[in-house]
């Protein structure tokens, strides 16, 4: 018992609470082993408390004095890797091609993976695009096995389809999104209907296949830099040779009113649902649109960090004030104010917002705000 008394008397002030707890215990329960175990527990708690206090003081010191912008010290809390924050982490990125997490469309392995060629009902064939022309023009191609188009709004009828075609100019495979019909006319008034036409969004141009024209019972004659289509007693000029060596047709498709209505309805639902994506609209059974939404593009843009290196924060109020001015606002207040200046103190982060009628009043308001805060500081 004397050993226990000597131990308790030699303890530093940090162990006063533990010492009083042991002294309040009955003598039957107090043993040397009991006292040692309680003191070890108290020592462990003191160590944890000191470590946490040291971390808190160091973090407060860094927040008050410097702001480090070195990306090597930034740690992502999702993947625990240095060099980026969670907003730019690849683990949260969704591929717009395969829909999987962890990579972007340009790095998707499914893009480079070979797919089986597109198969038609009568025969399987692969189209070879020998050149690239204008996107809005149709090129007559003797090597193409099918009519092809990249403009969705030109189709009168369009059915979903799958498959790929080979593009010799790009040495890659292009995905077929559908097959349908396009109606239109030439500048000479000749009406033309292109059937079994493949819809390929990634195709740089539009093609009229000579083989498909011949399958329909027509013959194509290339003479005097012109492509002439004949059938029995009927003949017309389909296209002429241009300076690039391509037979470009003046075929003008008639835009389907159904497509215009569907596009307007899809854009309306896109705005109604808070600018949701096409995948969300498909889940709800609503029409989708491939048009770009300017508001979505602007909202997803991120600004680069302003300034590089370390910046020292002021250690006293009123030494540095950050100010910004918003306006003119289209709708004015009842008193006629259209500008909103803000003032932020660098030390205390105290923020003040005012309303003014004219832009030139900003400097005067800043002086009034500064004097007001100076008086408040001296009155404390």
TrEMBL record:
The keyword Protease applies. GO terms for molecular function: nucleic acid binding; peptidase activity; zinc ion binding. One of its GO terms (biological process) is proteolysis. Keywords: Hydrolase, Metal-binding, Protease, Zinc, Zinc-finger. The keyword Nucleus does not apply. SUPFAM superfamilies: Retrovirus zinc finger-like domains, Ribonuclease H-like. It comes from the Eukaryota. InterPro entries: GAG-pre-integrase_dom, PolX-like_BBD, Retrotran_Ty1/copia-like, RNaseH-like_sf, RNaseH_sf, Znf_CCHC, Znf_CCHC_sf. Residues 76-91, 95-108 form the CCHC-type domain. This is Copia protein. It comes from Araneus ventricosus (Orbweaver spider).
């Amino acid at each position: 018992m004397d050993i226990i008394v000597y131990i308790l008397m030699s303890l530093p002030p940090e162990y006063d609470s533990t010492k009083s707890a042991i002294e309040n215990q009955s003598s039957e329960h107090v043993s040397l082993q009991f006292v040692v175990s309680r003191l070890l527990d108290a020592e462990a708690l003191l160590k944890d408390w000191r470590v946490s206090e040291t971390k808190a003081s160091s973090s407060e010191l860094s927040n008050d004095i410097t702001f480090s912008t070195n990306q090597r010290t930034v740690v992502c809390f999702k993947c625990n890797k240095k060099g980026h924050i969670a907003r730019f982490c690849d683990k949260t990125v969704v591929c717009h091609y395969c829909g999987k997490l962890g990579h972007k469309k340009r790095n998707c392995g499914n893009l480079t993976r070979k797919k089986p060629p597109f198969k038609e009902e009568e025969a399987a064939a692969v189209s070879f695009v020998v050149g690239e022309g204008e996107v809005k023009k149709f090129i007559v191609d003797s090597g193409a096995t099918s009519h092809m188009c990249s403009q969705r709004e030109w189709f009168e009828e369009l059915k979903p389809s799958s498959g790929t075609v080979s593009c010799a100019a790009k040495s890659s495979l292009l995905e077929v999104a559908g097959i349908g019909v396009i109606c239109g006319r030439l500048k000479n008034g000749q009406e033309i209907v292109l059937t079994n036409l493949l819809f390929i969004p990634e195709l740089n141009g539009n093609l009229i296949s000579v083989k498909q024209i011949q399958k329909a019972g027509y013959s194509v004659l290339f003479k005097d830099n012109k492509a002439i289509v004949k059938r029995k007693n009927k003949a017309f000029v389909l296209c002429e040779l241009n300076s690039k060596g391509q037979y470009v047709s003046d075929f003008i498709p008639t835009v389907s009113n159904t497509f215009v209505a569907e596009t307007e309805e899809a854009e309306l639902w896109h705005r109604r649902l808070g600018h949701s994506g096409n995948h969300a609209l498909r889940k709800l059974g609503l029409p989708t649109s491939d048009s770009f939404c300017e508001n979505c593009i602007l909202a997803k843009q991120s600004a680069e960090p302003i300034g590089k290196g370390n910046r020292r924060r002021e250690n006293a109020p009123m030494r540095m004030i950050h100010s910004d001015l918003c306006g003119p606002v289209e709708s004015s207040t009842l008193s006629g104010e259209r500008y909103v200046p803000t003032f932020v103190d660098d030390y205390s982060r105290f923020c003040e917002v005012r309303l003014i009628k004219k832009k030139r009043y900003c400097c005067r308001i800043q002086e009034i705000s500064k004097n007001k805060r100076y008086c408040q500081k001296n009155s404390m």
